[in-house]
Amino acid sequence: MDAELQNVYWLFWGAYGVGLVLFLWMMQRLLRFLPFYGLRTLLLAALAAILVAPVESIDIAGWWIPAWLYGGYELILGDSVAASAALLNLALAGMVLLLVWILDLVRYRMKR
Question: What is the pLDDT of residues 70-84, one digit of tens each?
């Protein structure tokens, strides 16, 4: 992989990260009108799990792609093996963030 392609790769991930932080910040401000803390944080955790989970590309070793993007693209193309890898990564990220959400609810209860 040449240096120019590597720079574009890191530029994409940097722009994706900045966009993700801005999107989650806007969603947090939008969801503050929901009456329950647990519901607000569950929706934010679900969005984070969907948007943050990466999957390694089968075509180019060492390249990580957002799982929702890669899985959707491979589902459209009909490659069920690659799509299932992306869905597995999404499921794992969801389970991890579900655990973090439960721990956050315990922290919130203990603080009150």
Answer: 999 999 998 888 899
